[in-house]
Amino acid sequence: EVQLVESGGGSVQAGGSLRLSCTASGFTFDDSYMGWYRQAPGNTCDLVSTISSDGITYYADSVKGRFTISQDNAKNTVYLQMNSLKPEDTAEYYCAAAHAAQLFGATRLTYCVVAGPNYWGQGTQVTVSS
Predict the structure, then answer these.
(1) What are phi and psi of 128, to 5 degrees?
(2) Which of these, 41, 61, 123, 129, is most buried using a 10 Å CB contact count?
(3) What are the distances in angstroms from CA 108 to CA 12, 43, 48, 72, 119?
(4) pLDDT digits (tens, 9 = 90+) for 40-71
(5) How many alpha carbons lie under 13 Å from residue 65 in its C-beta half-sphere?
C-alpha cells in the first residue's frame, strides 16, 4: 500500500519560514514525480511545486524565489522549504506523487486528492498571520 505522510505545517507570522516534509512508503522515487498542492477554504486546489526523479523542478509564479522543493531519495522524502511566507500562503498543503509527469499537468483542480496524481497525502495546515 502506498502512503504519503506529511509533516511540518503550523502557524507562523508573515515573513517567517516553515519546512514541510513528505515521506513515502510503498514505492520509490525512481521514475516518479513528486509535488505539492495547496487548497484554502473556498478556493481551488493549486499546484505549488513539483520535482522529478532527476531533480527537475517547477514552481508556481506565486511562490518562485520563496519556496524550494528538494528530495532525499535515500529517505524517500520530499521537502518544501517555504520562506518569506505571506498570509495568502495560508492553506492546506498536500503532498502528491505520480508515475507520469502529465498527471501533474493540471495546475488547478477543483478539489485536491480526487484527481491528478496517483497518490496523495492527508494534508498539513499552514497558517500565516499578518
Answers:
(1) -120, 120
(2) 123
(3) 25, 10, 10, 27, 16
(4) 999 999 999 999 999 999 999 999 999 999 99
(5) 3
Q: Is 122 helix (H, G, I), strand (E, B) or coil?
A: coil
At residue 23, the 3 state secondary structure works out as: strand
Contact 87, 76 (CB under 8 A): no
More confident residue, 83 or 27: 83
Strands 124-129, 10-13: pairing is parallel
Distance CA 24, CA 13 (A): 29
The residue among 123, 118, 110, 125 whose CA lies nearest residue 26 is 118
Task: Determine the longest span between alpha carbons in the chain, in angstroms.
Answer: 40
Query: What is the DSSP pairing of strand 3-7 with strand 67-72?
Result: unpaired
Sign of CA dihedral 14, 6, 50, 102: negative
Q: What SS3 state is found at 31?
A: coil
Percent with pLDDT over 70 in the chain: 100
